[in-house]
User: Fold this.
Amino acid sequence: MNNINMSFDLYHLWQVCGGQLILIVAGLLLILVDIILMEKDQEIRGRWMGWLTVFIFAATIGHLACREWDLHDTIFMNVFSADKYSIFISIVMTCAGLLAAMMSIGYLRNNGLVRGEYYILLVFAVAGAIGLIQSVDLLMMFITLEVMSLAIYALAAFLKDSSYSQEGAFKYFLLGSFGSALFLFGVAIIYGTTGTLNITQMAQYISGGSYSTLPILVAFAMIMAGFFFKMAMVPFHMWTPDVYEGAPSVITGFMATAVKAAAFGVFMKVLFVGFTPILASSGQPDFAATVNLSALGPYWKPVIWWLALLSMFIGNLIAVSQSNIKRMLAYSSIAHAGYMAVGIIAANGEGRMGVLFYLFAYTLMNIGAFGVVYLIDGMERKAQDLEDYRGLGYIYPSLSFLLSLFLVAMAGLPPTAGFIAKFYVFAAAIKEGYFLLAALGVLTSVIGAYYYLRVIYLMYMKEKVKDVERGPIAAPTVVALVIAALGVVYLGLLPENLASVANLAQQSLAMIF
Amino acid sequence: MVHLSWYLTVSAMLFCIGVFGFLTRRNIIMMLLSIELMLNSVNLNLAAMSHYMEDIRGQVLVFFIIAVAAAEAAIGLGIVVTLFRNYRSVYTEDITILKG
Assistant:
């Protein structure tokens, strides 16, 4: 490094990393607030911490959407970048955090767990996730990936006396650290071969063409494997059902959406900026000419083709035989990872736009579904079997209606966001000639419809066999569920607005520094 | 002077030992140790490459990895303690109530 120029002004930092700064500072302040409230009544303490967290996430979304959206800038010698792509995914993840925080107020109270560190960990997890998606540097990617993951390991283990929660969290921790170690070894190989950690400089090196393929491919495979662990793609999915079943329901919803969004977002960034640059059409000076677009295409496309197919098949097929609803939704989340990967294989603008749209839609419907699951549960693990859902449609009509809506959206039926999202990714794949993959994908989503609709069938067409008493409903949870439901229907009826925003976001991926 | 390839070989061997230990050991403490071994093999790799490329960034990365590995160990051991309280065992074959 010849010219180490670390001078920067704070205003610039605030502009580029504003979302992270708000969350980190607010997270630290929340620790103080928690200490001050320690003396107070548990009820008041839980409510204060919860509402403050909701306010922090709302402020972050406001800042990201209004102040940072138009930005295109980097800071710290190209370590963090603010561009539409990373801001879009940051907003998706912060929305997941917001909905999860709103539901947590009721969830913690129902489970008798009013603990301040829960919200603090949630805030730091989202801060790490935003850092991950904003980083252009492999070192910073590793650090922020760990910031996010460590907070979520602790959250998954939050039910201290539940063997299920502990076992799930431990499995998550072991396989998550294994995945990060693989990722890190890939980073070391990249550093040794290209002499840089910055993914755009790496892209210049690769597109120069004068490299030995083997080390780059090994590094590529290891970095991909590290991300696949977080994305829950098939050969790396073993932890998913156990962790999703064991973790607190609201945290499961958060993990399934925010972590998936972060992992998919950063994977697409590394793939389309670093390894197979899409810069050619963006008219970058003296770079467009040398870009070798398809240099690594023959290597990664078949791999993801098979992984996407296996994820869709294995996720949907095993979900059919599940009796626990959280476990069923875990397998469905593996299947959804497969659908999103179809959009990545297409490797065109429509595909990337489809994946971004899918991430947003999936966030709304999945957190909503887990919110209803925790309400019907009452206390964790009291009523999680599918048998407990028999006849619920007549006892709790509005909750059953909401759950039906979210499940219909996950099954991909119109007029919901799930249908539009699946339509976008499959249309992109067909446009690039992946007919077989798209056909098999649609086939698997028919299998998927079977187990989603079975829950609705149990709720409305069957007599109840067991008395299920839902927990008390907290107002913020209702608000969060209504927001999620309205979002799912709105995106299903009028998808153009979000689609055009997602399209702007994916275009900026071609112009990352 | 020791050639770079020796360092890389040792580091690759350490990494493979870590992966092998992670996949075969049934004691959760040994699995945590294997993960540490994998992370430290990366450190060796980076320090050696950074020395030979005369570029300081690799060594900076090593410090960050050490810090992150320490944080990871703290969280991991915390989970192991609560896990042990619930199961009274550190062997993976006893920790299997989640399945299906």
About this structure: The interface with chain A takes residues 8, 15, 18, 22, 28, 31-32, 35, 38-39, 41-42, 45-46, 49-50, 53, 55-58, 60-61, 64-65, 68, 71-72, 75-76, 78-80, 82-83, 86-87, 95-100 of chain B (CB under 8 Å).
